[in-house]
Amino acid sequence: MKKRKWILIFVILLTVNAGYAQRFKAGVHIGLLATQVDGDDLGGYKKPGLFLGMFGNLPFPDKKIKLQMEINYAQKGSKTPAANAFHYRITLHQVELPFLFGWNFWKELSLEAGLSANVIANAKEYTDNELVLPNSGGSKFYLFELGGIAGLNYVFKDHFGLSFRMGYSLSPIGRSAISRKGNKLERYMWNNSILFRFYYQF
Prior knowledge:
The chain has one domain (about 25-200): Porin (Beta Barrel), CATH 2.40.160.20. The termini are far apart. Strand 3 and strand 4 (about 90-105) form a beta hairpin. An eight-stranded antiparallel β-barrel has the order 1-2-3-4-5-8-9-11. By secondary structure, it is mostly beta strands. It has one helix and eleven strands.
């Protein structure tokens, strides 16, 4: 009797897994970031960066809502305009793990929002094109960051889509050198980014 019970449970689990496997969708994406760092005493999305990665999503039964997971590489940071006499630049290389909810609200348009657990794999700070990190006089960057994401997706052809996203740090990415000189208004630094991405879903 017990053996039959375990066989029945095994068959049910296989059936459920097969159903989810059929619904699971995967894809790849690439894009261009426009970024700035709030708290570095600069302003404007002047630092471009590369974005690329892969994703998998699981549509809910009504196909209006889906859960999406991603693993991405993103170049972020900030910089002064080229015309400035003083040149300053922050370059960040991040590995990002977003968890997003998507809602297909009208035809080929969908909204998405969620959280992203990010690792700052490498951080560099330049003053007048000279590297000031990891010197003690430079800013301090953290290893982990929690980010928030919101965006709009448009599927323009089977398997192909375009997306506009905005991202912002929910936890600081570090402390600026300015803050350690007594400027408490700019004590922490935060990523602020705009992303234009192209994606292909298999």
